[in-house]
Amino acid sequence: MPFTELQNEMNERAAQGLLRQRRSLQSPQSPHITVDGKQYLSFCSNDYLGLANHPRLIAALQQGAAQYGAGAGAAHLVSGHTQAHHELEVELAAFVRKPAALLFSTGYMANLGVVQALVGKGDTVFADKLNHASLNDAMLLSRANIQRYRHGDMAQLAQLLTKIGGGRKLIITDAVFSMDGDIAPLPELLALCEQHDAWLLADDAHGFGVLGDQGRGSLAHLSIASPRIIYMATLGKATGVFGAFVAAEQVVIDTLINHAHSYVYTTATPPALASAVLESLKLIAQGHEMRAHLQRLIAQLRSGLKDLPWKLMPSATAIQPLLVGDNQAALDLSAALRECGIWVAAIRPPTVPQGTARLRITLSAAHSAGDVTRLTEAINELAR
To answer: In this structure, what is the dihedral angle of CA atoms 80, 280, 70, 30, given to the nearest 10 degrees?
Structure first.
């Protein structure tokens, strides 16, 4: 029976410390959550500004549902595109200072749509080896030639670009790498795009709302702008709601509307979500103190996790990975923290390279200094 084969595969994953399982929350996203009836201090959400349970977003969501109903009912190109969607696209484009923007259901679908619509056979995609799975899947589905470069290695990327002759060229990269927390060398990537007549797709899922002036993202943080840059960001992390958008030149957005399968052939997101995101953008723009508090927490955490048997990887963002190495050791450390009432996820291959299993500690502006102290003291005690 094929089920026996599947079960054997699951058993093998379990033996390797790679089996994935879900836990159910009985509470909203917050630094303090309830899982299986037990209270935990959580350091594994991407709710970087603590907006997912903000009363203003809840009220905007309720008002949007009252005005537009529960669902969009159709794809954007049929009858699912509402005034709320339109207003949000206009606001998002203005917020990241690009000519136009397009909403997608998820960041995964946005990346699939962009890459598939812009390149194909005869074209070339250049990809950082630590890119998110959605970018990896996107380049494979595009049927373009694929050239992968070592993480952040601009010299190798330059060599690869020089070897490619005709066809469109698209460089794809995380802006903030989701498992390492480091920021891509976007200015250097843009310079290579200029030199080799290429596009740059920057996935800023973990930078939007957190980095840059008024939380405008990694491009603002690094003070770069160019028509060559195609900017993608998600709306379910720092924004606290759900969805994603792509911002670019108008002709690129028009191309996506016509050719991005993950946009054309799917139902639009509920318009009430767009109403909530519009409210979130106001909070993000006014959120200087939230971001300053988050930076103080990052500094406190890094100061409190020195001289451990596990290496705290270099990161100036809310993603602070503690490198453990062995899969089971990472699981054991995560479980030991849960026994202390602290929830930190263990991340293992294939999400990260073999031998680099880690605890992915994520901080939020909703955490207190006391929360971080409790985490650092628990990790140091476990290290002893």
So the answer is: 140
Nearest to 230 by CA among 98, 60, 59, 64: 98
The token pair at 198 is: 């290429």
What's the Rg (C-alpha) of the chain? Answer: 21
Question: To which residue do tokens 């202390």 refer?
Answer: 340
Cite the DSSP H helix spans in the chain.
2-15, 55-68, 83-95, 107-118, 133-142, 154-163, 186-196, 218-221, 250-259, 261-264, 271-285, 288-304, 327-339, 369-383
> Between vectors from CA 247 to CA 243 and to CA 249, what angle results, nearest 5°?
155
Rounded distance between C-alpha atoms, residue 42 and residue 29, angstroms? 9
pTM of the model: 0.94
Active site residues: 178, 206, 237
Return the structure tokens found at 340. Answer: 């202390």
How do 32-35 and 38-42 pair as beta strands?
A: antiparallel
pLDDT digits (tens, 9 = 90+) for 263-283: 999 999 999 999 999 999 999
Count Cβ atoms within 10 A of the Cβ of residue 181 and give its class: 0-12 exposed, 13-18 middle, 19 or more buried.
buried
For the record, the structure tokens of 22 come out as: 């879900």
Give CA separation, 37 vs 3, 225, 267, 279, in Å. Answer: 33, 48, 35, 32
Pairing type for strands 199-203 and 244-248 reads unpaired
Instruction: Answer positive or negative: Cα dihedral of 91, 217, 50, 285.
Output: negative
The domains found in the chain, sorted by start residue, are: 22-49+287-383 (3.90.1150.10), 55-285 (3.40.640.10)
Q: What is the pLDDT of residues 29-74, one digit of tens each?
A: 999 999 989 999 999 999 999 999 999 999 999 999 999 999 999 9
Measured between alpha carbons, how far is 327 from 24 in angstroms, rounded to an integer? 23
Q: 169: which strand partners?
A: 124
Q: Token digits for 121? A: 């056979």
Q: Which tens digits make up the pLDDT trace of 291-301?
A: 999 999 999 99
